[in-house]
Amino acid sequence: MRKFAYLVPKTLDQAVSLHQSHGNRAMYVAGGTDVMVKVKSGKITPDYLISLKHALGSPQLRVNSDTGELHIGSLVTHRTLETSSTIKRHYPILHDAVQHIGSVQIRNVATIGGNLVNAVPSADGAIPLIALDAVAKVYAGTGERTVDLIHFFEGPGQTVLAPGEILTEIVVPKQPAPSAGAYQKYGRREAMELPLIGVGVQLSLEQGSNRCTKARIALGVAAPTPMRSLAAEHYLVGKEITEETLGEAGKLAADESRVRDSVRGLAWYRREMVEVFVKRMGMKCLERIKEMGA
Amino acid sequence: MTLPINNGNEGGPPGIGVSIPRADAYMKVSGREKYASDYYGEDLVWCGVKRAGVPHVVIGEIHTRAASETPGVLAVLTHSDVRGTNRQGVLQKDQPVLADDKARHCGDAVALVIAEDRHSLNKALDLVSFDYELLPGVFDAEEALEEGAPILHENHPQGNLLLSGEYRTGAGASAMAECDVVVEGSFRTPRQEHAYLETEAGWAQVQDDGRLFIVCSTQTPFRDRSEVAEALGLDLHDVRIKAPYPGGAFGGKDGVTVQTLLGLAALNSGGRPVRMQWDREESFLAGTKRHPARLYYRLGAKRDGTLHCLDVHMVLDTGPYDHLGGVVLALGLEHAGGAYRVPHVNLKGKCVYTNNPVGGAFRGFGVPQVTAAIEQMIDMTAEKLQMDPLETRLRNAVRRGDKNSIGKTLVNSTGLRECLKALGEHPLWKSRAEWKAGAGAFKRRGAGVAALTHASGYGPVVPDVANAKVELTREGKFLIYSGVVDMGQGNATTNLQIAGSILCQPTDGMELVLPDTDRTLPSGSASASRCTYTFGNALIGAAENLKTRILQRAADLLMARSRDEIVLIPGGVRHLVSGKDLPLSVIAGFMDEAERISVHHFKAPTAPENFDAGPGIRMHGFPHTLFSYAAHLALVEVDELTGEITVCRYVAISDCGTVVNPQIYEQQIQGAVAQGIGFALCEDLVSTQGLILTQDFAGYVIPTAADVPEIDSVPVEIFEPSGPFGLKGVGEIAMNGPLPAISNAVADACGVRIFEYPMTPERVLAAIRDACKRISE
After folding, report:
1. End residue of a domain, out of B603, B633, B665
2. Domain match, B655 and B733 both
3. I need a surface site. Which of A140, B52, B356, B542 has the fewest CB within 10 A?
């Protein structure tokens, strides 16, 4: 393995300034489960690794009781999300996703911020957060800016972050009640797997009926970046949620997806799975909303 | 470090049939066991290989200068630096250590770099280049046999045909005309990667006395020694190979991996120790694989379900080198008809050179491929006759004294019928109808069985021998010299259990010496389901012999009338008449060195039959005489909309003779079933034009613990008189079952049969769609 200097700035400003002075020879690191693997294999060769551990402070996972917004610090680990009762009860779509990322050992270390910044098309963390309309908070040295998560990704491995910018937090707005979501990571085995396709559905219903007031359908591995199927979402709003309408939404989402052939799975199959799992996740949303009401 | 262990007899000697803890368990789980990759030493240097990266080329000049001039590089070596034959291989010596004339697959080694550290090593490897002339490649085993196909080995008399076999009994395929039903099937099985935890690794140094010392992860230290000496031009006695516990092997370390390269590096490192460790990608690229097979079957039966005629044509892709491809072909041919009486058989098989990754030994060794076919042909026959698949198997299953499908008379224990009957009584089989009816929406459930047989040992020509050695040290401690590698199966522990039960010593009171060509005796490879059968028999002889000597010497010392009055007790002996004890250290003091070391030779029995299956096939191991048997049951659920198969429960009922250590026995069954499930459902080393597309574990998917169902392992213990304490081999047989059992279960669940493996959700869904289309038309 190539040698590098490991820097541990105390504040965000120090981190940004270190990054500025070393330019593209420097790289931020959080949990390190992606960065270190790439460094060891020689795929990336940074001279400086800048740890964000202290600069970002202790990882926060909290609900703002005034606004109802969920704040997830970017250093929050997948394991923290997986074991949080708040996430499990109120954001089941996120719980579905994080519990199948890597292994427990990886989830203990890997951070949600790292998962997003890494920007692989298969990022399991991104899909449910996009379905929840999450916003990314970015520290740029000169101040803070916010980006809707759906616009955060530009291509495989590429985000809107400018060199030196730091993802500090993800904020999930309060969801209209009643609503629930569900995520399916569909892969070829139960653990240590990248999804062949990832499907997240988040539905809000009219009080006391099955009429849809808001729908989010987010897809992973269906395009070079995480995507939403606007056609399917648009179709569902105002309709009764039934197997039939979800089936139709599934078809629309499948049509809108831009899946590809790869050695891990064929495009025709991925497209069909979008259809199958949009429907299945939609039905799961209904079940979950019923359970919450009960 | 000694630990309190439950040896089934508190503080006393281990019993036979008792789960004593594995001797390697504590050291391994606490990270203290020293594997081949844990050897370093002062002044260590690293070596690594420049791989061809192109599947078929004539090699021109190799440019090493830029690499040699890299700081930290000691040497860059090519074929011209090899003083011996520069060839390796088990039977055909057709694989160069460093490519000289041609590269025949992407993983061929072109140059060897020695460097101070891994960073300089990798830098230098990138700087090695070579001129080459591209040759057309051949990447399909059947195309490789066509006229005009590019030839891999110009001096091989049969072109790309490495070895072929042809064998007929009765009227051969012409008896198909006498059958009431005939079924046909073509099957394709995938290239499977061993995927051991520890990749190929080793350490080597030229010792002060000038001898080459290699420590490596291997199943075959003694054969490696010969290969290394010959390829590098050394005297056999100037090479020593030591084999620590490998971190998994499964056949992939049956033969040379790093050994010769390490040896060459050590000869050129100025006496400094050298280490080599392949990373996962290199292991995928250069390591051996299970041979992909094409299997064309026709099976004919009488109306009552009696099998009458079998016609088989099989083609194996061995990649560019023999390795053990010919032997795999011979074992595949022998097992092509399963464990059934079939009077008329016609078998044809070919093992073919291609520019694909190298085929080699892999748990099962040709048998998983043919079992996949025959066990589905049986279900297809049963379906056509509207018979129960278990009944159909019972009707044809061999008994002791029967001739099997190649006409070999079965003289040893033959428990297939007992396994099948036990399966028929198993609660999961009896309750299958209710279980199937409980499937949820869009789910179909099915049950599938497979009957299995697996030969052990080397066959009629190559002697399957072991030489055991047991020593009573001057201090009164027993040393058990393991001649056969324990790559994880647990045979080292079984050796202690066998020796301890004879010598009446608790296992923690004895010491194991792992295979080492300077210390232990040649006892063959850790392969072929032979380890405990062959070595155990030798060990019993050695231990009994030493016991007799100790008792005799003790009888003299204690003035007993005969040695019958003396027994061994932990740490000593007791005179039963006087009640007097003597510690072993005292008795050892009255024995000279020659008396304290006992050796015993055992040769496994061979078949007396001399079947003519074509030139060389007998030499390659056809036929065997000793077989294990099993009956497997898979309960699966198929998702109709995704094509996903979930194996919900699995039952493996096995006749592998007496069970010496139930825990180790069960681990063998579970491990093989898990590997078999991978073979059936997800494992496929995909290569296109000789380039591997599944280059790591993100692309090549093996099952995790979460993917393997609860496995019920039930031994049917039939005493095998020729086996140590009545045992037979258990290491491989369970590998053969999952593919056909699962495929039969899928057919039972949704009426479609998959003929190309692994049974990925894509393939299953496509098959379900095709079936729906056919019905609607």
Report:
1. B603
2. yes
3. A140
Residue A15 lies in a domain: yes
Q: What is the ipTM of this complex?
A: 0.94
Closest approach of B775 to chain A, Cα-based (Å): 21
Rg (alpha carbons) of chain B, rounded to whole number: 27
| Closest CA of chain B from A82, distance in Å | 18
Given a contact cutoff of 8 angstroms between Cβ atoms, the answer to whether B629 and B453 are in contact is yes
**What distance in Å separates the CA atoms of residue B690 and residue B693, rounded to the nearest whole number?**
9
Rounded Cα distance between B453 and B654, Å, is 10
Determine contact: B188 vs chain A, CB below 8 A: no
Instruction: Kindly state whether residue A56 falls inside one of the protein's structural domains.
Output: no
Statement: the pTM of the whole predicted model exceeds 0.95: yes
* Chain A CB within 8 Å of residue B19 CB: no
Residue among B686, B706, B762 whose CB faces A190 most closely = B706
pLDDT at B424: 98
**What count of CB pairs under 8 Å joins A to B?**
42
Is the pLDDT at A1 greater than 80? The verdict is: no
Residues in chain B closer than 8 A to A120 (CB atoms): none
Residues with Cβ < 8 Å from B352, sequence gap 6 or more?
A: B141, B142, B144, B145, B160, B161, B162, B315, B316, B317, B318
B622 in the same domain as B677: yes
Q: Do A266 and B762 touch (CB under 8 A)?
A: yes
* pLDDT tens-digit series, residues B77-121: 999 999 999 999 999 999 999 999 999 999 999 999 999 999 999
Question: Using one digit for the tens of pLDDT, what is the confidence trace for B402-454?
Answer: 999 999 999 999 999 999 999 999 999 999 999 999 999 999 999 999 999 99
Tokens linked to B774: 């056919």
pLDDT band for position B11 (50/70/90)? Answer: low
Closest residue in A to B704 (Cα–Cα) = A191
**Parent domain of A195:** 179-293
- Residue pair B46/B275 in contact by the 8 Å Cβ criterion: yes
Q: What is the pLDDT of residue A292?
A: 87
Contacts of B693 in chain A (CB under 8 A): 263
Q: Are residues B398 and B449 in the same domain?
A: yes
Q: Which amino acid is at B680?
A: A
